[in-house]
Amino acid sequence: MVVTVPEGYKPSDDEPFMNPVMREYFRRKLLAWRSELYQEANETLVHLQEGGEIEPDIADRATTETDRSLELRTRDRARKLISKIDEALERIAAGSYGYCMETHEPIGLQRLEARPIATFSIEAQERHERMERTHRED
Question: Looking at the whole model, is its pTM more than 0.85?
Fold first, then answer.
């Protein structure tokens, strides 16, 4: 079944949560985000391949190496983000997208708009982070 999203559509609390149009809206949002990350990764790869010359000045060389290191770290974060986007797309296909993995309650549209890969409601996320801090301090 093909679901069309009206031009300028934004999910609202006035409609049923995760109805087909809303799911398609978030699916397209996630696909666009993933596409953007892939494009940035390709640009980084091209940039790193082009930058093969060795800088004669030691300070310039250090700056170049620092820049490359930062780019690679950024790409690693993007790779992890792409994985989370793929997981969110799988949840959309399975029908569980938008619901907290802990409480099974709706996550909330504002949170999903801000972080479409969210898996916990704000309350559950805060509990999860408190538990992490508690165990980290041990």
Answer: no
What is the domain-level CATH number for residue 57? 1.20.120.910
Report the distance separating Cα 130 and Cα 121, nearest Å: 14
DSSP-derived letter for residue 10 is: -
CA-to-CA distance for 1 and 93, rounded, in angstroms? 12
**pLDDT tens, position by position, 41-76:** 888 777 766 665 666 778 877 877 787 788 888 888
Q: Which residues pair with 99 in a beta bridge?
A: 106
Query: Minimal CA–CA distance to 120: which of 134, 135, 99?
Result: 99
Same domain for 111 and 85: no
Domain enclosing residue 124, as ranges: 98-138
The answer to whether 28 touches 3, Cβ cutoff 8 Å, is no
Residue 88 placed within a domain: yes
Distance in angstroms (rounded) separating the CA atoms of residues 29 and 83: 15
